[in-house]
Sequence to fold (177 residues):
Amino acid sequence: MVPDIKVSDIAKSIKLLILDVDGVLTDGGLYFDDNRGEFKRFNALDGHGVKMLRDSGVEVAIISARHAKCVAHRMDGLGVKHYYQGQSNKVIAYEELLTKLDLQPSQVAYVGDDVIDLPVMSKVALPIAVANAHPFVKEHAVLVTQNGGGNGAVREVCDLLLTAQNKYDDLMVAYLK
Fold:
């Protein structure tokens, strides 16, 4: 993990959270049926974190090397408008997102788990690895989550961003009404 960087200071200015899918939004398992259908297990806590983050004004995007219909279905359900699948070179999608959303790298966080994520992670202000990420990826992250991919890591990141931006408490109070 990259030392001596205050995560909360960086998190205050994040306007876009980019997520990998397999190993971040899922546990990394790939499930296939006999008809070549693909299944993925998504975490409901992660999903609600994504919705809260979006509702608070932080954009969320997905960049995945694989392509699966169930990912599009899940992103549509979460209201995520920016998702890129089949991206062997994730930097291309990343640069397109910066242009489309008129953002700077200093306003972006990325959550990854494997070495294919490093080219983008090396360009953003807040590179994050999930707890079960490859050790080399963890070495190049500013933050490593306590939870594993598909098991609350994304919610952990969403809560961190909301807290750093002083939005978390107001959101939580609204659930008590």
